[in-house]
Amino acid sequence: MRKKLRKLLFVIIVTCIALAYVFHLDHYLTLESIKANRVLLKSFVDRHYIPSVLLYCFGYFLLIALSLPTGGILTLLGGFLFGTLPATLYVIISATTGACISFLTTRFFVGDSIEKQYPRYAQRINREVSRYGYSYLLVLRLVTIVPFFLVNILAGTTSVSFLTFLWTTAVGIIPATMIIAFAGQQLGTINSFSDIFSKNLIIAFALLGILALLPMLYHRFFRKRVL
Question: Disulfide-capable partner of 57 in 94, 108, 113, 161 (CB 3.0 to 4.6 Å)?
Answer without folding.
Answer: 94
